[in-house]
Amino acid sequence: MTQVAETLESSTDKALDRDCTTLSRHVLQQLQSFGPEAQDLSALMNRIALAGKLIARRFTRAGLMEDVLGFTGEVNVQGESVKKMDVYANEVFISVFKQSGLVCRLASEEMEKPYYIPENCPIGRYTLLYDPIDGSSNTDINLSLGSIFSIRQQEGTDLDGEAKDLLNHGRKQLAAGYILYGPSTMLVYSIGKGVHFFTLDPSLGEFILTQENVKIPEHGAVYSVNEGNFWQWEESFREYIRYVHKTEGYTARYSGAMVSDIHRILVQGGVFLYPGTLQKPEGKLRLLYETAPLAYLIEQAGGLATTGTEDILDVVPKQLHQRTPLIIGSQQDVAKVESFMQKGQ
């Protein structure tokens, strides 16, 4: 290592030693409290971080271990083929939160009904909703993936086990965020007080604050959509795509992992689209596990998220696994897409 490199590494390490803010500490600072509710949220975020570390560790060794890559041969409640990492990640979240004492229920797109933790339910006041692996089609080809999470207060006694209190709008979320598994592992979260980035330092085993109060640009050059579905969309969406094709300054970026694509939009600006199709106008994405948590984050960063006709956070689901279309990103870019939709009405 050259002297310059050693000096840079030394100065970076000293800065981390001096300014190191961990995830749990940051939550308490955000809430400006050490009261019971603040301690609960801090502990919950710590558990989510632990799940992220375990999943990230599995990903880094995926090609070296048996029974990590590929499909299980089963189909989940959504009618989708299940990957082995889907199952592993779902079990990680369950295992981690069984020990929390705070969460009574977990609801995941991989499970038909909520998973109850009876020993936690007398005192557990929270529900965790999550997509354990978003973009699992990228698992076997070593591309970025993510996990999405949302924390809600449990309301009522839920004696019938149907979790009907979860059938409520997204503004009821106490916290939401995602974990991005890429060249580094990042955790992005909000508790209604801005959006904050944390990066996993493997040497410390901690998520360290790397960017605070992130704001999405009002406009960006990126549009992110699966154009393979072009002829399945309504004409208004096709007109928007034609518009960006012939307008200078736009660039297409689509990875097949929504967390990765939306992280790019959050940093650089632009718009992510997953519209419904003529045959399935409700779209593909799940409201409670995917679109509502991401909408919560993007709105906290100053962006917009809509179905095309309604703010995502105002949508009240009728069932646990309800789907919605999604238009999300910078204010100006979302508004531009909506303008094409309004013309088509």
From TrEMBL:
Pathway: Carbohydrate biosynthesis; Calvin cycle. It comes from Sphaerospermopsis kisseleviana CS-549. Keywords: Calvin cycle, Carbohydrate metabolism, Cytoplasm, Hydrolase, Magnesium, Metal-binding. Belongs to the FBPase class 1 family. Mg(2+) 2 binds at D131, D134, E290. Its EC number is 3.1.3.11. Pfam families: FBPase (PF00316), FBPase_C (PF18913). InterPro entries: FBPase_C_dom, FBPase_class-1, FBPase_N, FBPtase, Fructose_bisphosphatase_AS. Residues 22-212 form the Fructose-1-6-bisphosphatase class I N-terminal domain. Substrate binds at D134, G135, S136, S137, N226, Y254, K284. Homotetramer. The keyword Hydrolase applies. One of its GO terms (molecular function) is fructose 1,6-bisphosphate 1-phosphatase activity. Residues 216-342 form the Fructose-1-6-bisphosphatase class 1 C-terminal domain. This is Fructose-1,6-bisphosphatase class 1. Its cofactor is Mg(2+). It is an enzyme of class 3 (hydrolase). It is found in: Cytoplasm. It catalyses: beta-D-fructose 1,6-bisphosphate + H2O = beta-D-fructose 6-phosphate + phosphate. HAMAP family: FBPase_class1 (MF_01855). Mg(2+) 1 binds at E109, D131, I133. The keyword Transcription regulation does not apply. Binds 2 magnesium ions per subunit.
